[in-house]
Amino acid sequence: MSNIMKPVQVLVRNLPTAKAPTGRMLVESGELTKPGKVTRAKNVVRPTLLGAVLATAALAAAACGSPSGAVGDGASASGAGINVAQAKKDLDAIIAEPGEISVPAIGKAIPKGKTISYMTCPVAVCTEVGRGVEEAAKTLGWSVRIVQNNATPIGYKNAWDQVAQNPGDGVINAGPVLPYSAVESQMATAGVPVISSTSPSPVGGYLKAVIASTDDVRRQGEAVGHWVVQDAGAPVTSVFIHDPSIPALASALPGYRDAVKKNCPACDVVDLKVSAAQIGPALAQQVVSYLQSNPDVKYAAFGLGDLATGVPAAIKAAGLSDQVKVTTRAATPANLEDVKNGGMAVAFTGELYESGWRAVDKLARVLSGAPIGDTYPLGLVRAITKDNLPSDLTVPYSIPGYEASFKKAWNVS
After folding, report:
1. What is the per-residue pLDDT across 235-262, written as a single tens digit (0 to 9) for each?
2. Secondary structure of the chain in the HEC alphabet?
């Protein structure tokens, strides 16, 4: 019997893990291991969030053709501990979605002259979401006040102290590093509606909606996992690289792992913990050192596009390009350049500018007294390869025509 048919065992290894900055909280869940460890997932098949509807959706998508371009040929085979065909169907069910964002009409006059606070964070995705917030606010005749959050628990609370003293008419919060219960008093002092871009906490009280929710982030992780199985065509070992101190993104890891194990029980999944504070040469070297010590790893999947900055170039310089394929969720422009240059096989996009517009849309509904609608909207996911790269790689990928969808719903031009 070949080795790939043997049961996968749990294996824990010590790894050189970058330390979190002083005061930074390492938030753990039942899905994550202790800092400084890598754990191989057990040989268990778990259902994905989309459940039984995936098969039906995938068949419809296949009939229409996927707008995302080729995302790896793989092998149309099942058995030997892997079902490539089902992985492709599951992937298509996520990425072969409607080509435009659907936004229901508000149906009420949106008040003008409002001021909102936008709490940003040090990573690029927060900046890009913020640009969407500013563009959407300008469309409505609103102004935006930027409040910096340095992504540490202390810095996060300090940012909320600032907001509490001058919140404006509403708050949009990007990258919360603590549950909202930790800043409950500040939110009460502010006394205005809050929309969160990612959140470890459920909607309730002043928190009116969560864009890029736990389910949304998990679903993006699932897409990456399905692609790895489809592309590999045979049982492989892959590593998921993430920063566990960002609790709002924690669901990407179990989403990825469960998707891989669903259609490839014989596949092995490990996770490598890194720190976003080390983005750049230090983090890239950490990943390269890990890959050099673990030549059995054939795929490196990043839980956040920013974490992959400089990694493909470092992999190439180390002579490891033929050993491992790189992919990511929440792709940045730098990731798309890596796709163009061949350093990254595929980059999965989440909504960035669109998330900013979605957040402003939710505030507009609250402030105008209109129904808020879905409080956990699922964003569109796209798989970007060399075959469907956008023409402008200096900005994040965005869904064509998304601005027009919101303007129509708001009855503005």
Report:
1. 999 999 999 988 889 999 999 999 999 9
2. CCHHHCCCCCCEEECCCCCCCCCCCCCCCCCCCCCCEEECCCCCCCCCCCCCHHHHHHHHHHHHCCCCCCCCCCCCCEECCEEHHHHHHHHHHHHCCCCCCCCCCCCCCCCCCCEEEEEECCCHHHHHHHHHHHHHHHHCCCEEEEEECCCCHHHHHHHHHHHHHCCECEEEEECCCCCHHHHHHHHHHHCCCEEEECCCCCCECCEEEEECCHHHHHHHHHHHHHHHHHHHCCCCEEEEEECCCCHHHCCHHHHHHHHHHHHCCCCEEEEEECCHHHCCHHHHHHHHHHHHHCCCEEEEEECCHHHHCCHHHHHHHCCCCCCCEEEECCCCHHHHHHHHHCCCCEEEECCCHHHHHHHHHHHHHHHHCCCCCCCCCCCCCEEECHHHCCCCCCCCCCCCCHHHHHHHHHCCC
